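Re: your question from the hallway

Yes, I did run it. Sequences:
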Amino acid sequence: MLQYDQLSLNIPDTQKPRVVIIGGGFGGINLAKKLKSKDFQIVMFDKQNYHGFWPLLYQVATAGLEPDAIAEPLRKLFDDCDDFHFRLVKVTGVDTALKQVKTLIGDLPYDYLVIASGSKTNYFGNKQIQQNAFPMKQMTDALNLRSQLLQSFEQASMTKDPGMRQALLNFVIVGGGPTGVELAGSLAEMRKHVLPSDYPGLDFSLMNIYLVEGLDRVLPPMSPEASAKTRQYLEKTGIQVKVKTMVESYDGETVTFKGGEQIRTQTLIWAAGVQGSLIDGLPADAIERSRILVNEFSQVNGTQDVFAIGDVALMKTPDYPNGHPGVAQPAIQQGALLAKNLFRLSKQQVPEPFKYFDKGSLAIIGRYQAVADLPKKLHLSGFVAWIAWLFVHIWYLIGFRSKLIVLSNWLYRFFTYDRGTRIIIRPHVRKDDTVAHEILAKSEML
Amino acid sequence: MLQYDQLSLNIPDTQKPRVVIIGGGFGGINLAKKLKSKDFQIVMFDKQNYHGFWPLLYQVATAGLEPDAIAEPLRKLFDDCDDFHFRLVKVTGVDTALKQVKTLIGDLPYDYLVIASGSKTNYFGNKQIQQNAFPMKQMTDALNLRSQLLQSFEQASMTKDPGMRQALLNFVIVGGGPTGVELAGSLAEMRKHVLPSDYPGLDFSLMNIYLVEGLDRVLPPMSPEASAKTRQYLEKTGIQVKVKTMVESYDGETVTFKGGEQIRTQTLIWAAGVQGSLIDGLPADAIERSRILVNEFSQVNGTQDVFAIGDVALMKTPDYPNGHPGVAQPAIQQGALLAKNLFRLSKQQVPEPFKYFDKGSLAIIGRYQAVADLPKKLHLSGFVAWIAWLFVHIWYLIGFRSKLIVLSNWLYRFFTYDRGTRIIIRPHVRKDDTVAHEILAKSEML
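Structure:
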């Protein structure tokens, strides 16, 4: 058994400047990659030992990809780097005066600290939704949702009560951004191509997929053209889109919208908001809307040697007065530039300000159905956008093995329409569901 | 939330004879496959919704394969069969007088019942080992072990106390059968090719792998030639083999062997015994050494229409007075023959007695290192046996997608020596390990 006094970070002392990176996401790994060749010691902390390719997380949730296909072990990514040190531990705070990070294991002095901790689900203070809804931010979320989907169909096969059966076949996705749209599209494909032959006793014309968005269109970050096309695709696939609709409450059985409408559902998926994953010890005026305010060099307001990049950072620029979108590209580009800038700063040279190059946005609804906003206000949809989406995602996926496995799965799915990972490894059960708990416990599945 | 009175098995009534199969393992699925074309209604119960290819489970545990690659959804396997019904529910017992199976959801009458529920870990009554050891029988076992292995190295990187660090680097595998041997070989390959570059701060010459066997040789079910060759391979790879050694106790910190020797270890893997997964309601004299006694037609002693096949069955024949080995081939062959025999019985024809055709046994230790016992007392080892092992496993793996993914992983590993799934999705923590619990809870990893 572990004892706290036995534990220590064990980072070797060094003469080189030490860069501490919190988080192994897009920002953190691109920063570390570009720093590798320079004269720094790099220490990376993350509470998870792999880099997750979150754009494909929804495919894990809908049994189209295995989780291991979108996860690259962080130690493997940097095993060719001499002075790179990874520690699987959570960073709890920073002491900017002493220039130390604080972790659950111990403290570590830094020369430069880069906070790249990303974002987490935002329930907007609604604890009931937090308790009952299914988020979609990390791997366990996707696996719990996968189990929940499959368990719902199994239970629906064994339910006599038509009201409960309908509740098991109603799926409500809250959040009309890319995550919600892609999840809805994927569920609709399952409903059409896979589920009827898996569950011949169930009538899948009764399965409802709702996509709920608070603003006035789906895919609000994309162009109106992309939104309109996406809505068309979604409705053609039989998804019921509700815009300008906000969730009031969800008790695990019924979701109530502001305005009073209710839907009985056992599965409410919350893809409706994110907030930054903050750490303690930053200046109070450096936090705005749970993101960390930084200047154009990614320096945290009120500090010299603390930086923030990616989703957790809020860099206000003329083009992006509310900060950059919480997608991969800003994190990747900020990480790469910061590596260059840390090198310059360590040589007392002038750093380069960040200018975001928006390479465009993509979203996919189904087979041959995608939308793309490209630079110079070019909008694509349909087959071309679909091919672009596939290509971009394989390109940016980290790790040769992952590319191989994902491509194999996609080719398999393209030709067979099948989704190969329809397996429940760890059943999901709500804490208050005593009957389900009892059944699973007696089945030795808990 | 579920209510018991809402649940029902919902199996449609039928004029055809109903065959109820408990278990979707090698025996159950081969029986169902061969029955498909005949005039039966087939109902399959399993507490898990997929068929697991357990011969490759050890590769999931040692981060060489993803779990989804060795799991085939049962509904998918039989989606082309009109009168096949799957229910994800545990069968608790049988009433042979009323000819009904009892499940946690409800009862179902049968015409023929086939118990193909397989086997589970046997701790020989030692509750302390059951609480502290890592079994290797089902998917969650392999994933827990994978997490434990990776977490051990992470913790070892952060441990100041040399005694604890050594305990984290000592791995004791109890059971010198194929499971234990293949696991040991796989761990040795990780130690040699992967771990030193993943954990540059750790000295892997300190990592010990022990393989402990109670009988006088490893691989007791195989030939003495195979055992001797295997021992040679194991020791050449640096595995410490202890035969004629039994475990007295294991408290989670130290394993004590009969005779007094002790080894400090945080990871004791129990691959030392199995017992049949029985159900209630069978005649008492039909159970022997926790397996179900059957005649040469797989009929359970003392019943007419209840059968048992595979690991759970004990069929004594002149060639196999203690029953057939608990491997795939007897289950596959018994399942196929039983399908033929059920057809004959339903037509009042004479069934055919079972005669096991032993196609041979294989075990793998490492790259180019395998042993094979073939019919006519032919023994192979080395490269030829290794190729045979690879080929046979891909051949018998169920599902085209699985074959594709496994082959991709093996090709990738062959050329890079890398193991791609070194990820901890759900950390493992022992119930009594309060410090680890606290750290994981504060890291939001629980």
